[in-house]
């Protein structure tokens, strides 16, 4: 049983190592060709090479996610104790997302009051981005995806909550934030790479939780709960 | 893995007088070693590629050593650290940069 659990991160680490080198080589040669370091290329050839380079970039991003997932599974990532404003991070991440605009799907952010949490800002930002990206990608009809960041008192502790989804599913999503075991999170979805599994593990490594809406449509939205930073700099949830 | 080396063949060649600075690449992945050789050659370096640790050790014992060795850590047979030890025994002044994809 134990060996099965330890095999997955090792297999992932080995796969990352074995994949990285050929992708580096392919990307490197493509760049040489695009820069015409091996002779002139026609416009048509350039477009093909640039598309191939973009595809290599996608594989490279997936390899980076695999590497991150392997390190998280192996417990190799330490969460730094840096205090950050989660509301500002939510706004920052959302402002940079334009997926879905061509389909009339937009993000509507409500994150006014500062909420201090402790952790790894880039990784938390990537986790939030993955959740927003999934919501934007999976919404078929035009409309707004609401992103709401708020504070929550629960079991004598103080938490930051981010809920992401269509307006109609926000109340049940927020209600789930109070649960000791929120609804499960569907992280293994096609077309979204490994960003959701990585994001869930990052949030859990921060002492938080992520869940899907308790809705017949499990992909309709998601919620995140993170312990707030205490006034004395404690990393766990604090009583008010 | 990202490869970043100063560009411009003129500046690379000028830094060691008339001779182009030489770099030996040692990596058991011949595709990667060949790519690095091409990459470095385009930037004005005299680059040679080896796919085994014992090959570079034998070459350095017999001939003029390169200015720098780029040496992969994980290789079958004589690995990077064993190769490093043998290279330093043969040529203590040799400059070696270890490469790792992990």
Name the descriptors:
heterodimer; A: 240 residues; alpha+beta; two-stranded antiparallel sheet; 7 strands; disordered C terminus; B: 102 residues; alpha/beta; Rossmann fold; 4 strands
Describe the model.
The complex is a heterodimer of chains A (240) and B (102). Chain A has 240 residues and is of the alpha+beta class. Chain A folds into two domains: 72 residues; 157 residues, Histidine kinase-like ATPase, C-terminal domain (Heat Shock Protein 90, 2-Layer Sandwich). Helices cover 46% and strands 19% of the residues of chain A. In chain A, the strands form two sheets. In chain A, strands 2-4-5-7-6 form a five-stranded mixed sheet, with helices on both faces. Chain A has a two-stranded antiparallel sheet with strand order 1-3. In chain A, a hairpin with an 8-residue loop joins strand 6 and strand 7. The C terminus of chain A is likely disordered. Chain B is of the alpha/beta class and 102 residues long. Chain B has one domain: Response regulator (Rossmann fold, 3-Layer(aba) Sandwich). Chain B contains four helices and four strands, in the order αβαβαβαβ. Chain B has a four-stranded parallel sheet with strand order 2-1-3-4, sandwiched between helices. In chain B, strand 3, helix 4 and strand 4 form a beta-alpha-beta unit. In chain B, helix 3 runs parallel beside helix 4. The longest helix of chain B has 13 residues. Chain B starts with 8 loop residues before the first helix and ends with a strand. About 5% of the residues of chain B have low confidence. Classes of the chains: A alpha+beta (240), B alpha/beta (102). At the A-B interface, helix 1 of A face helix 2 of B.
């Amino acid at each position: 049983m134990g060996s099965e659990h330890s095999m997955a991160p090792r297999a992932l680490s080995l796969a990352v190592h074995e994949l990285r080198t050929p992708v580096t080589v392919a990307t490197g040669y493509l760049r040489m060709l695009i820069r015409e370091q091996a002779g002139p290329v026609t416009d048509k050839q350039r477009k093909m090479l640039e598309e191939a380079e973009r595809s290599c970039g996608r594989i490279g991003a997936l390899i980076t996610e695999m590497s991150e997932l392997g390190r998280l599974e192996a417990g190799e990532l330490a969460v730094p104790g840096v205090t950050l404003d989660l509301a500002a991070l939510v706004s920052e991440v959302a402002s940079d997302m334009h997926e879905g605009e061509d389909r009339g799907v937009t993000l509507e952010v409500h994150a006014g009051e500062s909420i201090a949490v402790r952790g790894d800002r880039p990784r938390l930002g990537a986790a939030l981005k993955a959740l927003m990206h999934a919501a934007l990608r999976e919404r078929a009809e035009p409309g707004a995806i609401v992103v709401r960041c708020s504070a929550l008192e629960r079991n004598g502790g103080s938490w930051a909550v981010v809920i992401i989804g269509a307006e109609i599913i926000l109340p049940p999503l927020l209600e789930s934030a109070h649960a000791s075991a929120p609804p499960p999170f569907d992280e293994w979805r096609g077309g979204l790479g490994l960003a959701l599994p990585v994001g869930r593990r990052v949030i859990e490594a921060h002492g938080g939780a992520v869940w899907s809406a308790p809705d017949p449509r499990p992909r309709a939205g998601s919620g995140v709960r993170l312990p707030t930073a205490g006034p004395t700099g404690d990393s766990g949830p604090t009583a008010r | 893995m990202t490869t970043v080396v100063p560009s411009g063949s003129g500046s690379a060649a000028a830094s060691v007088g008339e001779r182009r600075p030489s770099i030996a690449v040692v990596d058991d992945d011949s595709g990667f070693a060949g790519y690095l050789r091409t990459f470095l050659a385009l930037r004005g370096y005299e680059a040679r590629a080896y796919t085994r640790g014992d090959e570079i050790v034998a070459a350095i014992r017999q001939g003029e050593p390169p200015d720098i060795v780029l040496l992969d850590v994980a290789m079958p047979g004589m690995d990077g650290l064993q190769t490093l030890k043998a290279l330093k025994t043969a040529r203590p002044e040799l400059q070696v940069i270890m490469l790792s994809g992990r």
